[in-house]
Automatic annotation (TrEMBL):
Organism superkingdom: Eukaryota
Name of this chain's protein: Alkylated DNA repair protein AlkB homologue 8 N-terminal domain-containing protein
Source organism phylogeny: Eukaryota, Metazoa, Chordata, Craniata, Vertebrata
Any Pfam family matching the protein: ALKBH8_N
Domain Alkylated DNA repair protein AlkB homologue 8 N-terminal: residue ranges: 41-82
Organism: Hemibagrus guttatus
Length: 128
């Protein structure tokens, strides 16, 4: 992937490594984060939301098995919240409003499944 911040678009000559040209791609996945040439994060957000939606299925199954809310919360934090917050400092600041709503919808769905709101389960940090 070629990253060029110049305003005027220009053609980039091919890069050769060991005599073979390096392929120029529009997007790539690096350390679990989808990087797109124009640095939009919609592809990354859709990938994250898809993973989280798949894990919500298992949260629903655990709820049907009548597990208590603390166990469901622990499962959520270990399997879903960890996916939602992976490399969040890199991509969340430039997310669109619709991407943020998509992620928030997953969190709200998990709250409904577990039957708690996160304010009830969080430990206060710092002075009250």
């Amino acid at each position: 992937m070629v990253v060029d911040f110049r305003r005027a678009q220009s053609h980039h000559s091919p890069l050769f490594i060991d005599g073979c040209p390096v392929e120029i791609v529009k997007s790539t996945k690096f350390l679990g984060v989808h990087l797109v040439e124009n640095f939009t994060w919609s592809l990354n957000t859709s990938s994250i939301s898809k993973k989280a939606q798949q894990r919500l299925y298992f949260l629903r199954r655990l709820k049907k098995a009548h597990l208590p809310p603390p166990i469901l919360t622990m499962f959520y934090r270990g399997t879903i919240e960890s996916v939602l917050s992976s490399c969040i400092t890199a991509w969340f600041g430039n997310c669109t409003v619709s991407d943020c709503k998509t992620l928030q919808r997953i969190v709200k769905t998990a709250e409904k499944i577990i039957g708690v709101t996160w304010e009830e389960t969080r430990v206060p940090i710092g002075n009250p």
